Amino acid sequence: MTRFPVTPEGYAALTKELRRQKEVVRPGIVRDIEEARAHGDISENSEYEDAKERQALCEGRIRELEGQVAAAEIIDVAKLEPSERVVFGTTVQIENVDSGEERTWRIVGESEASVEEGTISFKSPLGRALIGRNEGDEVAVPAPGGKQAWEIVEVRYE
């Protein structure tokens, strides 16, 4: 089984979502199916068909989450010895060499990445470029408009 790295917060979110799917969503769909069956002939019952489709999607999501939880490798950066090296889970402040624009990103697992929350996947082009590098290093990152050069200003083990 392939392991995939996840932060402690990401693991907690996965298990919370799995619990919600099993304890809230699934029973709600079962009630909807029972109610639709009570209306009589299910061969032309759109409510029944809709509920069965939602049930299939829910069961697929549960299987996906169970697989992710089972394969998760929790990496807690707070337990690592802090250094200037970028590793999974660190927060990295970078500066665009050309424009001077600064950004701060936390490098996380694929299921946790959210630009709005300031997190990027370790598998993203920027994440791959940063992992293993140190403060002061310059990295070239492929972008739609051509390569961009970023300097690693600070690495935080938070």
Main traits of this protein?
elongated; alpha/beta; 3 helices; two-stranded parallel sheet; Helix Hairpins; 2 domains; five-stranded mixed beta sheet; Chitinase A, domain 3; 158 residues
What can you see in these coordinates?
This protein is of the alpha/beta class. It has two domains: about 5-75, Helix Hairpins; about 80-155, Transcription elongation factor, GreA/GreB, C-terminal domain (Chitinase A, domain 3), CATH 3.10.50. It is built from three helices and seven strands. It has helices spanning about 10-40, 45-70, 125-130, and strands spanning about 5, 70-75, 90-95, 100-110, 120, 140, 150-155. Strands 5-4-3-7-6 form a five-stranded mixed β-sheet. A hairpin with a 6-residue loop joins strand 6 and strand 7 (about 150-155). Helix 1 (about 10-40) runs antiparallel to helix 2. The longest helix has about 30 residues, at about 10-40. The radius of gyration is 22 Å and the shape is elongated. The model has no long low-confidence stretch (mean pLDDT about 95).
